[in-house]
Amino acid sequence: DTVLTQSPALAVSLGQRVTISCRASKSVSTYMHWYQQKSGQQPKLLIYSASNLESGVPSRFSGSGSGTDFTLTIDPVEADDIANYYCQQSNELPYTFGAGTKLELK
Amino acid sequence: QVKLLQSGAALVKPGASVKMSCKASGYTFTDYWVSWVKQSHGKSLEWIGEIYPNSGATNFNEKFKGKATLTVDKSTSTAYMELSRLTSEDSAIYYCTRYYGGYSDWGQGVMVTVSS
Known about the structure:
- The complex is a heterodimer of chains A (106) and B (116).
- With 106 residues, chain A is an all-beta fold.
- Chain A contains no helices and eleven strands.
- The mean pLDDT of chain A is 97.
- In chain A, strand 9 (84-89) and strand 10 (96-97) form a beta hairpin.
- In chain A, 0% of the residues lie in helices and 49% in strands.
- Chain A is globular and about 35 Å long.
- Chain B is mainly β and 116 residues long.
- Chain B has no helices and eleven strands.
- In chain B, the strands form two sheets. In chain B, strands 2, 4, 5, 6, 9, 10 and 11 form a seven-stranded mixed beta sheet that branches. A four-stranded antiparallel beta sheet of chain B has the order 1-3-8-7, with no helix packed on it.
- In chain B, strand 7 and strand 8 form a beta hairpin.
- The radius of gyration of chain B is 13 Å and the shape is globular.
């Protein structure tokens, strides 16, 4: 299975630029997607296929990468962005998710 | 708009089975894969498997083969997942989700609690 590795947590200040990383154990081409999940809610798609902004998602979110290294960038961070963020690959079955990065306020 | 409406929470005894539903609306049900995802308390997301409603074709995470059964009813645009031989490890929230360039649409989740 393709293992996706994320940093467990990041502490940020409002208005700051933050990058969340995701490293795949093997190449997933650009079949990488990013989700935001707030407490008690279902995940929400932010970025699909590495760099495409999902409709309705604010433009302060962006994604980049290909192969094994991917990043989700939030610039600037707003209070509403405090949440868990997951990467997910759909290059190879079984599809897998990263363990998640918890974005916290400094 | 696209909606995935899941059935309600379930409290089930160890060793029993549970079947949950996911009713789709706002799109052509038979054209998109529907996946199921498990989220144990406070933990990450785990892909269980997927079904293509048009043909009934399925793909599973090996870990859930024998545990999960996926079916659909095209007449009601509803996907189902049945979990069998439940243990405490199966206590979790289960989501259905539609794949459209990433999982663009999610149900609200079904909380399953396995307890005697």
